[in-house]
Design a protein that fits this description.
The complex is a heterodimer of chains A (about 300) and B (about 280). Chain A has about 300 residues and is mainly alpha-helical. Chain A has 13 helices and 4 strands. In chain B, about 75% of the residues lie in helices and about 0% in strands. The chains are: A mainly alpha (about 300), B mainly alpha (about 280).
Chain lengths: ~300, ~280
């Protein structure tokens, strides 16, 4: 076969092979790459969604820097994330430790803890909204939580949990943790089960107590898993939105705003597409920077 | 020795108390949801017992027909089947090529897909909406299905590629010698062998599509096209006073997910950990 003919066959072969990835690449380019580009592009424009586009330079970004509601919303998401990182993950870790041995009902616990994470945010949000209902009927609380407090003799603790700006965010964070801890539990348990049992044996032979074993065997061996859980918790909780929508559907108000709500309202309520895109770009950058810093911190911790 | 046994006994009791307490906390809201779904609007504010005195199953029928939950449910089934079918087909073709076939730009393209999984794009839905409007795909089933296929594509390709890489080349060679085309190898050799990975992809993506809300809100304004999660919010807006019917609707939305989860636990957990490893 001549070189030319061989090349022709090779090219035909390559084209044929490329056809296998073509549908995936086409969808990816249209629905991922293009919106990615368009998001950055639009953020430099002043545009109402229809009609003429006005180039605005960095005006959207400049306005964003001084937008208190926007930075507050990042703070709110940060607060929800902080609660998830500390209480939710600590609970998940404790449960995983308790389940990482031969105990009865292990499979039952494992199945139950993972039910909230598979439910949709809408279902979880609406059910909790009903449980936290603040209304009174015939001098008697309607929602379960207030009813429980009333019936057990703590009527002074009854509260409009989601309506009061002081408690709304914490209540959302708690529901978010309720939905999320089972996920952390499964991840930690999977990590714990990969630890070689001989390491525990060796530690015991060396005379280490359970606390020492925990600090010197379990924690170092779990560091990679902990890092993954921390990063995914941050990425997931910072983007929480649908849960809040379902929980406080009576009207989203500033004190429960998170970045995605702000982006949504810039787009749908005020029709400022360019501004919404600028918010999206900044928010994406914040998320990437945060996970990058976390990764660096974890690398340093591992070296110590 | 005796002391040791007592110590172990108390420790195990406390462990179980702790685990059982959390398990109850997990289950209670769901039990409460089902319990309220079985009450009537007259009794729900009066009867505070855990198990209502008279059960009222009519709420489910009301939610299904009057609340149009039947229609939303059917839409969700259509979207889930189409999106998951599309993802399996497209991602397995691509993963097969990335793992087995040679063409220029193969590695670059593959790393693009991997990078897409790592970079969070929380607000790209604004630009996506603009694009869909331009393509006249807003308020169409097809548009929503394409967008949702894109959501699950990267992770599925990655999962399948790692799986195909582990399949020994001998099998493929044997099929080639027997006169199988590349497409034939994909269909008769690669796909059947990848069944465990495909199971993970199917279950995991079904959960994602069934529970998806944001894109459904943006792209589907027509009530006839809305999937279940979006429908529930519309339903809640219209029935905000009729709690028993609302709870019946939520129960019906949650039931299939919980059942699929209980049956397919193993696959879901596997998908979760593999997704996390690459994320």
């Amino acid at each position: 076969m001549g070189l030319k003919a061989k090349n022709a066959v090779l090219t035909r072969d390559h084209i044929e092979n490329f056809l296998f990835v073509f549908p995936a690449v086409a969808i990816f380019c249209i629905f991922y790459i293009y919106p990615f580009y368009k998001m950055i592009n639009l953020s430099f424009f002043d545009w109402k969604g229809i009609g003429p586009m006005h180039f605005a330079g960095l005006a959207n970004y400049a306005e964003l820097m001084g937008d208190r509601l926007w930075w507050d919303s990042i703070g709110h998401a940060g607060y929800i994330t902080l609660i998830a990182l500390t209480f939710q993950n600590a609970l998940a870790f404790a449960l995983a430790l308790a389940c990482d041995r031969e105990i009865r009902l292990k499979r039952f616990y494992r199945a139950v803890f993972f039910i909230p994470p598979v439910l949709s945010e809408i279902v979880v949000g609406l059910v909790w909204n009903w449980i936290l209902n603040p209304q009174m009927q015939n001098n008697h609380p309607v929602g379960f939580l207030n009813h429980f407090l009333y019936a057990t003799g703590f009527p002074q603790l009854m509260h409009n949990w989601l309506g009061d700006p002081k408690t709304a965010l914490t209540t959302i964070a708690v529901v978010n943790a309720w939905k999320g801890f089972g996920w952390g539990f499964i991840m930690f348990l999977a990590g714990l089960q990969t630890i070689d049992k001989q390491l525990y044996e060796a530690a015991r032979v060396d005379g280490a107590g359970s606390w020492k074993t925990f600090c010197n065997v379990t924690i170092p061996m779990m560091l990679p898993v902990i890092l993954v859980v921390v990063i995914l918790t941050v990425l997931g909780c910072m983007q929480v939105f649908v849960l809040i929508l379902a929980l406080v559907s009576e009207g989203l108000v500033n004190h429960t705003d998170v970045p995605v709500t702000r982006i949504f309202s810039a787009m749908q309520n005020t029709n400022r597409f360019g501004y919404a895109c600028a918010e999206a770009v900044i928010f994406g950058a914040v998320l990437i920077a945060t996970s990058f810093i976390l990764k660096k911190l974890a690398d340093r911790a591992r070296q110590l | 020795m005796n002391k040791y046994i007592i110590w172990r006994g108390t420790r195990s009791t406390f462990t179980h108390l702790f685990l059982m307490g959390v398990a109850l906390l997990c289950l209670f809201p769901l039990v409460w949801m089902v319990r309220c779904a079985l009450m009537s609007n007259d009794t729900i504010f009066v009867d505070a017992s855990l198990i209502p005195q008279q059960l009222n199953f009519g709420n489910f029928a009301t939610a299904w027909t009057k609340g149009n939950l039947g229609g939303f449910f059917l839409n969700s089934v259509i979207y889930t089947v189409c999106v998951v079918g599309g993802i399996v087909l497209i991602s397995s073709l691509a993963a097969f090529a990335f793992s087995r076939l040679k063409f220029p730009g193969r590695n670059v393209l593959f790393y693009l897909f991997v990078a897409a999984m790592m970079i969070p794009l929380p607000g790209s839905f604004v630009a996506l909406f603009v694009l869909m409007t331009k393509l006249h795909l807003v308020n169409t089933r097809f548009g929503y299905i394409l967008c949702m296929i894109n959501v699950g594509l990267s992770m599925s390709i990655l999962l399948l590629k790692t799986f195909f890489d582990k399949i020994p080349a001998d099998l493929e060679d044997a099929a080639r010698i027997d006169g199988c085309s590349k497409l034939g190898v994909w269909w008769y050799v690669a796909l059947p062998l990848a069944r465990p990975a495909i199971a993970v992809i199917v279950i995991f993506n079904s959960l994602t599509v069934w529970n998806e809300y944001i894109l459904a809100t943006l792209l589907l304004g027509d009530v006839k096209l809305m999937p279940l999660q979006r429908g529930l919010m519309v339903f809640q807006g219209a029935n905000s006073v009729d709690y028993p019917v609302l709870m019946a609707g939520l129960t019906m939305a949650a039931a299939p997910i919980v059942m699929v989860y209980l049956l397919m636990q193993k696959h879901i957990v596997k998908g979760l950990s593999s997704g996390a490893v690459v994320g």
